[in-house]
Amino acid sequence: MEITTTQYKHCDLLKITGRIDSMTAPDLSKLIAEINEAGRFKLVVDMKDVDYISSSGLWVLINAQKTCKRYNRGEVILACVPPRIHSALDLAGFVPFFKFFDDVVAAVGNF
Amino acid sequence: MKTFVFPGRYGSLERISHVIVEAATTAGFNDADVYAIQTAVDEACSNIIDHAYGGQDLGDIEMQVSTSHNNITIVLHDQGRPFTPESVPLPDFKTDLQNRKERGLGLYFMRKLMDEVRFEFSEEGGNTLTLIKYKDKKG
Asked: How far is B137 from chain A (nearest CA, A)?
Protein backbone atom coordinates (compact mmCIF):
# COMPACT_ATOMS: atom_id res chain seq x y z
CA MET A 1 0.00 0.00 0.00
CA GLU A 2 1.16 3.51 -0.82
CA ILE A 3 -0.48 6.73 0.29
CA THR A 4 0.10 10.17 -1.17
CA THR A 5 -1.36 13.15 0.65
CA THR A 6 -2.20 16.60 -0.64
CA GLN A 7 -3.18 19.36 1.71
CA TYR A 8 -5.74 21.76 0.27
CA LYS A 9 -7.10 24.91 1.85
CA HIS A 10 -10.31 23.24 3.04
CA CYS A 11 -9.40 19.54 3.23
CA ASP A 12 -6.72 16.86 2.92
CA LEU A 13 -6.70 14.37 0.04
CA LEU A 14 -5.33 10.87 0.62
CA LYS A 15 -4.75 8.75 -2.46
CA ILE A 16 -4.31 5.11 -1.56
CA THR A 17 -2.79 2.53 -3.91
CA GLY A 18 -2.67 -1.24 -3.35
CA ARG A 19 -3.89 -3.44 -0.51
CA ILE A 20 -5.37 -2.30 2.81
CA ASP A 21 -5.09 -5.41 4.99
CA SER A 22 -3.94 -6.31 8.52
CA MET A 23 -0.37 -5.54 7.46
CA THR A 24 -0.99 -2.09 6.02
CA ALA A 25 -4.14 -0.83 7.82
CA PRO A 26 -2.11 0.39 10.87
CA ASP A 27 -0.04 2.64 8.55
CA LEU A 28 -3.22 4.25 7.20
CA SER A 29 -4.56 4.64 10.74
CA LYS A 30 -1.34 6.30 11.86
CA LEU A 31 -1.31 8.74 8.94
CA ILE A 32 -4.93 9.78 9.56
CA ALA A 33 -4.18 10.19 13.28
CA GLU A 34 -1.29 12.53 12.41
CA ILE A 35 -3.55 14.65 10.20
CA ASN A 36 -6.16 14.76 12.98
CA GLU A 37 -3.52 15.68 15.57
CA ALA A 38 -2.62 18.65 13.36
CA GLY A 39 -6.23 19.78 13.76
CA ARG A 40 -7.48 18.75 10.32
CA PHE A 41 -10.63 16.65 10.15
CA LYS A 42 -11.91 17.12 6.58
CA LEU A 43 -10.57 14.25 4.51
CA VAL A 44 -11.14 12.93 1.00
CA VAL A 45 -9.92 9.37 0.44
CA ASP A 46 -9.32 8.54 -3.23
CA MET A 47 -9.78 4.77 -3.48
CA LYS A 48 -9.56 4.40 -7.27
CA ASP A 49 -6.36 2.32 -7.07
CA VAL A 50 -7.18 0.26 -3.97
CA ASP A 51 -6.99 -3.40 -5.04
CA TYR A 52 -8.26 -4.94 -1.83
CA ILE A 53 -9.60 -3.93 1.57
CA SER A 54 -10.07 -6.27 4.54
CA SER A 55 -12.25 -5.75 7.61
CA SER A 56 -9.22 -4.23 9.38
CA GLY A 57 -9.02 -1.59 6.63
CA LEU A 58 -12.75 -0.94 6.81
CA TRP A 59 -12.45 -0.35 10.56
CA VAL A 60 -9.73 2.24 9.96
CA LEU A 61 -12.16 4.16 7.75
CA ILE A 62 -14.95 3.85 10.32
CA ASN A 63 -12.74 4.93 13.21
CA ALA A 64 -11.49 7.87 11.13
CA GLN A 65 -15.08 8.84 10.40
CA LYS A 66 -15.95 8.65 14.12
CA THR A 67 -13.05 10.98 14.98
CA CYS A 68 -13.61 13.42 12.12
CA LYS A 69 -17.37 13.77 12.58
CA ARG A 70 -17.16 14.32 16.33
CA TYR A 71 -18.18 17.88 17.31
CA ASN A 72 -19.19 18.46 13.66
CA ARG A 73 -15.60 19.39 12.90
CA GLY A 74 -15.35 17.48 9.64
CA GLU A 75 -15.86 14.16 7.91
CA VAL A 76 -14.27 11.50 5.72
CA ILE A 77 -15.53 11.45 2.13
CA LEU A 78 -14.79 8.49 -0.15
CA ALA A 79 -14.02 9.12 -3.82
CA CYS A 80 -13.77 6.81 -6.86
CA VAL A 81 -14.57 3.66 -4.86
CA PRO A 82 -14.23 0.55 -7.08
CA PRO A 83 -17.31 -1.73 -7.14
CA ARG A 84 -15.57 -4.55 -5.20
CA ILE A 85 -14.56 -2.16 -2.42
CA HIS A 86 -18.07 -0.68 -2.33
CA SER A 87 -19.48 -4.22 -2.02
CA ALA A 88 -17.23 -4.85 1.00
CA LEU A 89 -18.38 -1.59 2.62
CA ASP A 90 -21.97 -2.58 1.90
CA LEU A 91 -21.54 -6.10 3.35
CA ALA A 92 -20.12 -4.53 6.51
CA GLY A 93 -23.09 -2.17 6.77
CA PHE A 94 -20.83 0.88 6.47
CA VAL A 95 -22.24 2.53 3.33
CA PRO A 96 -24.67 4.79 5.25
CA PHE A 97 -21.77 6.33 7.19
CA PHE A 98 -20.06 7.89 4.15
CA LYS A 99 -20.66 10.27 1.27
CA PHE A 100 -19.44 8.84 -2.03
CA PHE A 101 -18.18 10.81 -5.03
CA ASP A 102 -17.21 9.46 -8.45
CA ASP A 103 -14.85 12.36 -8.95
CA VAL A 104 -12.02 13.59 -6.71
CA VAL A 105 -12.40 17.25 -7.73
CA ALA A 106 -16.09 17.19 -6.80
CA ALA A 107 -15.25 15.47 -3.49
CA VAL A 108 -12.64 18.09 -2.60
CA GLY A 109 -15.06 20.82 -3.69
CA ASN A 110 -17.68 19.49 -1.31
CA PHE A 111 -15.79 21.05 1.61
CA MET B 1 -4.18 -30.48 -4.19
CA LYS B 2 -1.40 -28.01 -3.41
CA THR B 3 -0.04 -27.38 0.08
CA PHE B 4 1.64 -24.16 1.19
CA VAL B 5 3.15 -23.16 4.53
CA PHE B 6 3.36 -19.48 5.49
CA PRO B 7 4.79 -17.86 8.62
CA GLY B 8 1.89 -16.63 10.77
CA ARG B 9 2.50 -12.93 10.25
CA TYR B 10 0.71 -10.08 8.47
CA GLY B 11 3.51 -9.92 5.91
CA SER B 12 2.34 -13.33 4.61
CA LEU B 13 -1.16 -12.09 3.74
CA GLU B 14 -0.31 -10.60 0.36
CA ARG B 15 1.45 -13.80 -0.79
CA ILE B 16 -1.49 -15.89 0.46
CA SER B 17 -3.85 -13.66 -1.53
CA HIS B 18 -1.74 -14.09 -4.68
CA VAL B 19 -1.92 -17.89 -4.36
CA ILE B 20 -5.69 -17.80 -3.84
CA VAL B 21 -6.38 -15.34 -6.66
CA GLU B 22 -4.30 -17.42 -9.08
CA ALA B 23 -5.98 -20.70 -8.05
CA ALA B 24 -9.52 -19.30 -8.20
CA THR B 25 -8.90 -17.52 -11.52
CA THR B 26 -7.36 -20.66 -13.06
CA ALA B 27 -10.35 -22.67 -11.81
CA GLY B 28 -12.63 -20.37 -13.80
CA PHE B 29 -14.33 -18.32 -11.09
CA ASN B 30 -15.60 -14.89 -12.15
CA ASP B 31 -13.93 -11.71 -10.86
CA ALA B 32 -16.51 -11.09 -8.13
CA ASP B 33 -16.14 -14.64 -6.80
CA VAL B 34 -12.33 -14.43 -6.95
CA TYR B 35 -12.48 -11.27 -4.84
CA ALA B 36 -14.92 -12.92 -2.41
CA ILE B 37 -12.67 -15.99 -1.98
CA GLN B 38 -9.62 -13.75 -1.53
CA THR B 39 -11.46 -11.80 1.18
CA ALA B 40 -12.64 -14.90 3.06
CA VAL B 41 -9.15 -16.45 3.11
CA ASP B 42 -7.49 -13.15 4.09
CA GLU B 43 -9.94 -12.69 6.98
CA ALA B 44 -9.43 -16.32 8.05
CA CYS B 45 -5.63 -15.96 8.09
CA SER B 46 -5.82 -12.61 9.94
CA ASN B 47 -8.04 -14.30 12.53
CA ILE B 48 -5.52 -17.15 12.92
CA ILE B 49 -2.73 -14.65 13.60
CA ASP B 50 -4.84 -12.41 15.89
CA HIS B 51 -6.86 -15.00 17.80
CA ALA B 52 -5.47 -18.55 17.44
CA TYR B 53 -1.84 -17.49 17.85
CA GLY B 54 -2.57 -14.19 19.61
CA GLY B 55 0.18 -12.35 17.74
CA GLN B 56 2.63 -12.52 14.87
CA ASP B 57 5.42 -15.09 14.41
CA LEU B 58 4.04 -17.55 16.94
CA GLY B 59 3.31 -20.35 14.47
CA ASP B 60 2.72 -21.26 10.84
CA ILE B 61 -0.37 -21.25 8.67
CA GLU B 62 -0.62 -24.34 6.48
CA MET B 63 -2.92 -23.92 3.50
CA GLN B 64 -4.20 -26.64 1.18
CA VAL B 65 -5.92 -25.55 -2.01
CA SER B 66 -7.83 -27.89 -4.29
CA THR B 67 -10.12 -27.15 -7.19
CA SER B 68 -12.57 -29.24 -9.17
CA HIS B 69 -14.91 -28.51 -12.06
CA ASN B 70 -17.41 -26.87 -9.70
CA ASN B 71 -15.64 -25.69 -6.57
CA ILE B 72 -12.55 -24.46 -4.78
CA THR B 73 -11.72 -25.86 -1.35
CA ILE B 74 -9.26 -24.12 0.96
CA VAL B 75 -8.20 -25.87 4.18
CA LEU B 76 -6.26 -23.82 6.74
CA HIS B 77 -4.40 -25.43 9.65
CA ASP B 78 -2.85 -23.73 12.65
CA GLN B 79 -1.47 -24.91 15.98
CA GLY B 80 -2.86 -22.07 18.05
CA ARG B 81 -5.56 -21.87 20.67
CA PRO B 82 -8.87 -23.58 19.85
CA PHE B 83 -11.08 -21.19 17.92
CA THR B 84 -14.73 -21.27 18.94
CA PRO B 85 -16.79 -19.41 16.34
CA GLU B 86 -19.88 -19.46 18.56
CA SER B 87 -18.02 -17.18 20.99
CA VAL B 88 -17.68 -14.47 18.33
CA PRO B 89 -20.56 -11.98 18.43
CA LEU B 90 -22.30 -11.03 15.21
CA PRO B 91 -21.59 -7.52 13.93
CA ASP B 92 -24.16 -5.03 15.16
CA PHE B 93 -25.77 -3.43 12.12
CA LYS B 94 -28.19 -1.22 14.03
CA THR B 95 -25.85 0.82 16.20
CA ASP B 96 -25.03 4.37 15.14
CA LEU B 97 -21.57 5.37 13.92
CA GLN B 98 -20.12 6.56 17.23
CA ASN B 99 -21.11 3.36 19.04
CA ARG B 100 -20.26 0.83 16.32
CA LYS B 101 -17.84 -1.72 17.82
CA GLU B 102 -15.06 -3.66 16.13
CA ARG B 103 -16.28 -7.19 16.38
CA GLY B 104 -17.10 -10.24 14.34
CA LEU B 105 -16.76 -8.75 10.89
CA GLY B 106 -14.08 -11.14 9.61
CA LEU B 107 -16.07 -14.24 10.54
CA TYR B 108 -19.25 -12.65 9.16
CA PHE B 109 -17.47 -11.97 5.84
CA MET B 110 -16.28 -15.60 5.65
CA ARG B 111 -19.80 -16.92 6.17
CA LYS B 112 -21.43 -14.48 3.73
CA LEU B 113 -18.84 -14.91 0.99
CA MET B 114 -18.29 -18.70 1.04
CA ASP B 115 -20.78 -21.54 0.62
CA GLU B 116 -19.33 -23.74 3.36
CA VAL B 117 -17.31 -22.68 6.44
CA ARG B 118 -16.35 -25.43 8.90
CA PHE B 119 -14.23 -25.13 12.04
CA GLU B 120 -12.72 -28.20 13.72
CA PHE B 121 -10.19 -28.60 16.52
CA SER B 122 -8.17 -31.56 17.74
CA GLU B 123 -5.34 -31.75 20.30
CA GLU B 124 -3.04 -33.29 17.69
CA GLY B 125 -4.05 -31.33 14.60
CA GLY B 126 -4.89 -27.95 16.11
CA ASN B 127 -7.46 -25.79 14.31
CA THR B 128 -8.69 -26.79 10.87
CA LEU B 129 -10.84 -24.36 8.90
CA THR B 130 -12.41 -25.55 5.66
CA LEU B 131 -13.73 -22.93 3.21
CA ILE B 132 -15.59 -24.02 0.07
CA LYS B 133 -16.98 -21.90 -2.75
CA TYR B 134 -19.07 -23.41 -5.55
CA LYS B 135 -19.28 -22.00 -9.03
CA ASP B 136 -22.59 -20.60 -10.22
CA LYS B 137 -24.03 -20.50 -6.73
CA LYS B 138 -24.83 -17.33 -4.85
CA GLY B 139 -22.55 -17.41 -1.81
From this structure: 18
For B32-97, give the DSSP string: HHHHHHHHHHHHHHHHIIIIISSSTTSSEEEEEEEE-SSEEEEEEEE-SSPP-GGGSPPP-SSS-G
What ipTM does this complex have?
Answer: 0.94
CB-CB neighbors (< 8 A) of A65 in chain B: 97
Q: pLDDT tens per residue, chain B (139 residues)?
A: 999 999 999 999 999 999 999 999 999 999 999 999 999 999 999 999 999 999 999 999 999 999 999 999 999 999 999 998 988 888 988 899 999 888 899 999 999 999 999 999 999 989 999 999 999 775 4
The domains found in chain B, sorted by start residue, are 2-134 (3.30.565.10)
> Is CATH 3.30.750.24 correct for A2-106?
yes
Q: Which residues does chain B have within 8 Å of residue A97's beta carbon, measured at their own beta carbons?
A: 97
B chain contacts of residue A52, beta-carbon cutoff 8 Å: 17, 35, 38-39, 42
